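REQUEST ID: PR-0412
SUBMITTED BY: lab tech R.K.
PRIORITY: routine
TASK: structure prediction, single protein chain
INPUT:
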Amino acid sequence: MEVTERTVRRDVARLRDIGYGVESDPGRLGGYRLGESTRPLPLVLDDEEAFAVAVALREAAQTRVLGDDQAALSALLKLRRLLPRRMAALLEAMDGAVEHTSRAGGQPLSTRLLAELANACRRGERLRMTYRDMQGQETERKVDPHRLVFTGHRWYLVAHDVGRDAWRTFRADRVLATESTGQVVRLDDPPEAARLVARALTSDYPVYATIRLPVPADEAMRRIPATSGVHTPDGPGATIVELGGRDIGSLADRLVGLGVPLQVLSPDAVRDAVHDRALALARQNSP
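STATUS: complete
OUTPUT:
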């Protein structure tokens, strides 16, 4: 490699100083090899990586996506002290230029609880869970966790409710306490977690429509978020979406506002309302 033995020894000493476990074998056929480290290794990030992590931590701290236990803010403050001056200045510029709107309320969600739920999903371990429903009633549940789903402003736990023998979605900020039973369970034919949450979030509308968008599923989700509709791919270039609204008029207005030559599959009342709005718009813009 066109370096001297002295350079190799100096580099190995430097690696050992910063925590890498470098082992050596003496003799003619000996050499160096990486072994286990004796302490946590340093995190080496380039400028763009460090800035991306700082922005993500800033977003987590300001939007409370991880709750109010200050973990994200504490990590952000530590990282900012390590950023180069130019990157710290850029982050300060963002602090002065970016604002967040208020989000729907809920109980603070601690990162500790979120980690417990995630670990239970990973281990497939049944939990005893104290849960407060939307009426404020507290119940004790036994659940078999499956997945955590983040909708953009809330976390949901998708789990099999043992007592009710049904799949349920639970708002994570309404989980008051969890206790492991130590029982590992096998989930037979679990549902698609994101779809189950989407159906739960869109199940309270008085009016529904099924439409066909001539765009792939990823673009359809950008136009209609997963929290507002249930998406089903219809070939490589189209997506079927079921979504709800307060009434026929407001739902038709929303569909026209998508700016896509969509097709309303059902019901007829929503299709007629979209047709009438499209004709009115055409008449107002005719030469």
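NOTES: The radius of gyration is 27 Å.
REVIEWED BY: pending
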